[in-house]
Write a structure and sequence with these properties.
By secondary structure, this protein is mainly beta. The protein contains one helix and 13 strands. A hairpin with a 2-residue loop joins strand 9 and strand 10.
């Protein structure tokens, strides 16, 4: 017969193991996939002109009009984690715009822009920064010509950006509380092969 104390210890250990799994995301809120390979354009409204298309396992844009173009989600998000796998050419100007206030007019004033822009003339808010809110360390990281992963976490007034596993932004800002997510084409070539979001 198993000793009651040992049984209780085993039960506690099991509960702690489950709690640890939940902390690693196994029991957390589910992810919603926005882009999966070359699929996902139907999850967005297009704002501006760019040649968005599903090509070779990714959604990409290589050219557009004289102003940036965006893929904008049809739903809004408040507290969330966004994870995106992307490939940018050396000259690309792109980014993840979040908590946007006007889904028809996307700017770095009415959204938080987690930037992808290696050749930004002022590198203060280059790749890895939140434009006009949180500068990136200097010299900024470079992502041109390779696949990279950016994670953007918005929880209350805490804003975090992680690029390829390294934290580039961790600040407090209360300007914007919720809104759609937008993917940008500004110049060069940008490809998104996996973009997913989950509520926090």
């Amino acid at each position: 017969m198993r000793h009651p104390t040992l049984a209780r210890l085993a039960a506690v250990a099991g509960a702690l193991a489950l709690a640890g799994c939940a902390g690693m995301g196994m029991g957390g809120k589910p992810w919603t996939t926005l882009v999966d390979g070359a699929r996902g354009l139907e999850n967005f409204n297009q704002v501006g002109q760019a040649d968005w298309a599903g090509v070779d396992g990714a959604i990409q844009a290589t050219r557009g009009g004289s102003t940036p173009a965006y893929l904008v989600t049809r739903q809004s998000f408040a507290d969330f984690e966004l994870r995106g796998e992307f490939w940018a050419s050396d000259d690309a100007n792109s980014g993840f715009f979040v908590r946007c206030q006007n889904p028809q007019v996307i700017t770095d004033e009415n959204c938080y822009e987690a930037n992808i822009f290696d050749q930004r003339p002022d590198p203060t808010f280059a790749t890895g920064a939140i434009v006009k809110v949180a500068a990136v360390r200097q010299p900024p990281p470079k992502v041109g010509g390779k696949w990279s992963t950016m994670v953007v976490r918005m929880q209350g007034d805490r804003l975090q950006v992680m690029l390829n596993g390294e934290t580039t932004v961790d600040v407090r800002d209360r300007k914007l509380a919720s809104g759609p997510i937008a993917l940008q084409w500004g110049r060069g070539t940008i490809k998104f092969r996996k973009v997913e979001v989950r509520a926090l």
